[in-house]
Design brief:
The chain is of the alpha+beta class. It contains 11 helices and 35 strands. The strands form 6 sheets. Strands 2-3-5-4-6-7-10-11-12-13 form a 10-stranded mixed β-sheet, with helices on both faces. Strands 14, 15, 16, 18, 19, 22, 23, 25 and 26 form a 9-stranded antiparallel β-sheet that branches. The radius of gyration is 25 Å and the shape is globular. It starts with a strand and ends with a strand. Keywords: Hydrolase. It comes from Streptomonospora algeriensis. This is CocE/NonD family hydrolase. GO terms for molecular function: hydrolase activity.
Length: about 675
């Protein structure tokens, strides 16, 4: 990324800003803005719980001063109960959070350096609440940029996928368990820091317990899901994600369902801002943001809306790898979505084969009862690219799956959108799940997963209800896969793989399931085929070089460490995935603070014992300055029986080596067709 030091406006940075709320709570903020001698400017809010003074300080320093230097006041505000803000953070996207956001926007709009117009932007949490606040229509809000977020908190978030419990539900809950345990900085809040810290330790709670008690799409998940009524959003929306991210599907749905001016952008990236995007290529995303904000917050008649509604990175075929520096491909565009250029082609599935559209297939069937080890090469539901976490060669997982291969392609094939597998099937158990994968198989046999989908088969009507399956009864189900833009070269094959487990990406069903797929013409693969002509709607290089302001100065005191290990013990037949994400220790020179973070995750199963899946996590967070040294250690363990989930957790907090808080949780949560 190119570091920019010469900007159109001189930037003033306000540290230690306090924003008062109507209930007396005070939120901590950091604001970058043009010099006050200039005309008032629009304000842009990023409202997240990740500590603007330290944990996101380096990232923030590349984004917000850049936008401020182009004529905007940018505010990074810590949510209630995070960073140096008062209160406790008790869950994500609560009504309190959204009311707080509205008050913060009103406060920004009333400042003498603000023109009275505001925007919201953010990645992940900040992208979520930008959408949610937009649906509440605060008076000053003029537009939003939402990255790596979703309009549907149940169907398409870190918790559940297709009604199946995601392993990332445990991982993410453990992350927030650790982050909400962190203290405020005494250098900012003074002697009140212990009182504020104890409030967090006592009231933030174990969010995983809450999330596991809502296994269907109920009112808990409907809250904050703007898909309930997209017409509530009346401001322009730019929606952004990456193919390695977990949230690309929302971009398509927003482009289809919104009626406001909107742009969709999906690159090859993981869960990152596009100017920092990996896998690359990273792009000049902040320049794009300036054009967007100029158009909708300042009324500048530029050409930002002359671009196609949807721009995506059409990925070329690559060998399987858990990490890529760059994904070869090109930018393509569609003027609207759904695109009339996309042809949904239906390929009947026959014994071991994907047949051509319109083919007649003989009446047949194929059965599978997948071992619990299928899925150990799946990577994460949402890639962060550190440690390397993309799916690896699918051949070992294919060994425990039903596999259907196409003939060798004789010409190039490109798809854009969400493939689907339609299944006619029977099962021999009342609760079952299915995973379907689409892979690109090279001539040498290596299989690169292109996309996949999960479905809890007990959710026959919709995700708000579940009912037992009747063993032996014929059912039909459509399993949508994640949207993707992918090119398949001549000589390669397409592969559909079907399995009855996908651990640890998804929690397995209560007992092994025999799935029989009926191959009588109703079991099909549906591909969204894009023409491979030269009529793309965008120029070959639509974005400039990635750029931002120089990052905040820091010093690495202890190196980082990343691991992603699959291990199998052939004595007791235990298989495990072990993940280490150790960010080492970093000194933030401007505030003389040393920070370290380490997460260890282990996911194990034993033989084919469906009561054996276990996920354990441990997080260590430490903050140190002079004679002030605090650390929190949080652990979470999730296991299950056929009837219930068993959740055990601990939280220990230390000040200068002395333990000042110790809490434990031991809960049993009934399974509901999961």
């Amino acid at each position: 990324m190119r570091h920019v030091t010469a900007l159109p406006h001189k930037v003033v940075e306000d540290h230690g800003v306090v924003i008062p709320l109507s209930d007396g709570t005070r939120l901590a903020a950091r604001i970058w803005r043009p010099d006050s001698s200039e005309e008032p400017v629009p304000a842009i809010l990023e409202f997240i719980p990740y500590r603007q003074r330290d944990l996101t300080a380096q990232r923030d320093s590349t984004i917000h001063p850049y936008l401020a230097g182009h004529g905007y006041a940018c505010a990074r505000v810590d949510l209630r109960g995070s960073g140096d803000s008062e209160g406790a953070l008790e869950d994500e996207y609560l009504e309190q959070e959204l009311r707080d956001a509205e008050e913060v926007l009103a406060w920004l709009a009333a400042q003498p350096w603000c023109s009275g117009t505001t925007g919201m932007m953010g990645i992940s949490w900040g992208g979520f609440n930008a959408l949610q606040v937009a649906a509440r229509r605060p008076e000053s809000l003029g537009a939003i940029v939402t990255l790596c977020s979703t309009d549907d908190r149940y169907a398409d978030d870190v918790h559940y996928m297709g009604g199946c419990l995601l392993g990332d539900n445990l991982s993410w809950a453990s992350t927030m368990f650790a982050y909400t345990s962190c203290p405020p900085d005494p250098a900012v809040v003074g002697d009140r820091w212990r009182e504020m810290w104890q409030e967090r330790l006592s009231h933030s709670g174990l969010w995983l317990d809450t999330w596991l008690r809502h296994q269907l799409r109920d009112d808990y998940w409907r809250h904050g899901s703007v898909c309930e009524d997209l017409s509530d959003i009346e401001v322009p929306v730019m929606a952004v994600s990456g193919w390695a991210d977990g949230y690309s599907n929302a971009v398509f749905r927003l482009m289809e369902g919104l009626s406001v001016p909107r742009l969709g952008l999906i690159g090859p990236w993981s869960h990152k801002y596009p100017h920092l995007g990996v896998p690359g290529p990273a792009i000049g995303f902040l320049q794009q943001c300036v054009r967007w904000w100029d158009r909708w917050l300042k009324g500048v008649e530029n050409d930002v809306m002359d671009e196609p509604m949807v721009r995506t990175w059409m990925q070329e075929s690559v060998p399987p790898s858990t990490s890529y520096e760059e994904r070869p491909g090109r930018w393509v565009g569609e003027p609207r979505w759904p695109s009339p250029r996309i042809d949904r082609r239906t390929h009947p599935l026959a014994k071991d084969r994907i047949t051509a559209p319109g083919s007649e297939v003989d009446s047949d069937s194929a059965s599978v009862e997948s071992p619990l080890t299928v899925g150990q090469y799946a990577g994460k539901w949402c890639s962060y690219n550190a440690p390397p976490d993309l799916p690896y060669d699918q051949r070992e997982d294919d060994g425990g799956s039903l596999v259907f291969d196409s003939d060798k392609l004789t010409e190039r094939l490109e798809i854009l959108g969400a493939p689907a597998v339609n299944l006619e099937f029977t099962v021999d158990r009342p609760t079952a799940m299915v995973c379907v994968r689409l892979s690109d198989v090279a001539p040498d046999g290596r299989a690169t997963r292109v996309t996949y989908g999960l479905l809890n088969l007990t959710h026959s009507e919709d995700h708000s209800q579940a009912q037992d399956l009747v063993p032996g009864k014929r059912y039909r189900a459509s399993v949508p896969m994640n949207g993707v833009a992918q090119a398949f070269p001549p000589g390669h094959r397409l592969r559909v793989s079907v399995s009855t487990s996908y651990w640890p990406l998804a929690w397995p069903p209560p007992e092994p399931v025999l799935l029989t797929v009926l191959l009588e013409g109703e079991s099909t693969l549906v591909l969204p085929v894009r023409p491979t002509d030269s009529s793309d709607q965008v120029a070959p290089q639509p974005f400039g070089e990635a750029e931002g302001t120089p990052p905040l100065e820091s010093t690495r005191l202890v190196p980082d460490e990343h691991q992603w290990k699959v291990e199998r013990d052939l004595v007791d037949y235990e298989s495990s995935l072990k993940v280490v994400k150790d960010l080492g220790m970093v000194r933030f020179e401007d505030i003389d603070l040393d920070v370290s973070r380490r997460a260890d995750e282990v996911y194990t199963v034993r033989n084919n014992d469906f009561t054996s899946p276990k996920g354990t996590t441990e997080w260590r967070m430490r903050f140190k300055r002079g004679g002030w040294d605090v650390e929190t250690v949080t652990t979470t363990e999730l296991t299950s029986t056929p009837e219930a989930f068993h959740l055990n957790a601990t939280l220990d907090a230390y000040e200068n080596g002395d333990r000042v808080t110790a809490r434990t949780w031991n809960t049993v949560i009934p399974r509901n067709h999961l």
